[in-house]
Amino acid sequence: MSKIIFIDVDGTLVDYDNVLPKSAVEAIRKARANGHKVYISTGRSKAEVYEELWEIGLDGMIGGNGSYVEDNGQVVMHQLLTPEQSRRIVDWLHDRKLEFYLESNNGLFASENFETRGEPVMQEYSARKGQDNAAKMTVRQAFPEMIFGGELYRDDLNKVSFILESYDDFLAAREAFPDLQAGTWGGVGEKALFGDLGVKGITKAHAIDELLKHIGGRIEDTIAFGDAKIDIPMFEYCHVGVAMGNGGEEIKAIADFVTDAVAEDGLANAFQRLGVI
After folding, report:
1. Nearest-angstrom CA–CA distance, 152 and 149
2. The whole model's pTM is what?
């Protein structure tokens, strides 16, 4: 029976140095040659899905943690922040003197001082992920196609990420925007480095449900791969959930099984164990 496979990107398909293992590429290509469908399911917006990933050969993508769904080049669903919500977020972040970047399928748009303020934050994020070059990481290395000096009042936003000067900034954002989905990333609780604001009710699970309706797929045929707490709804929805060996304890606890780390051919080994290659 053909399977429908959903793969998170950062920490799952690529390692925390953004290295794409050759074994993962070969496994995906073999799985698709065997008749299985493979989609990435990521927090990245489409603008961050660089050509290297598309060249693997994919059936489509879920982006923005579930705000965007694409199947073979066809947009199945795209839920955007309204222009009014986007403007309110930008104004609120400016008033609170928090640096941020706007996530759109048309690009990532940095706030005025994000490059400077973001550098030590990205170095800390990289160090937590065990990257060798963490102390030298720059914003432009972390986000190679980020746009600086662009228009910040936009009508094409999936979500907005902002630097937390303290955990109180996240709590304040959640209170200020009850109409939006507020989250954090780059750490748990008060150790989080970023907050984010997106469309209410958006999850990877909801996006997968919409995709299955579109392609006539069955939940019984779904397999999800992930490494982080944000992937939990996807694991709860899909028939099989596989956590990466480098993943967090929360995702490992609810996984059907834990494979090896990304850099240790974890994806390919799991594909073999599941019988899709």
Report:
1. 9
2. 0.85
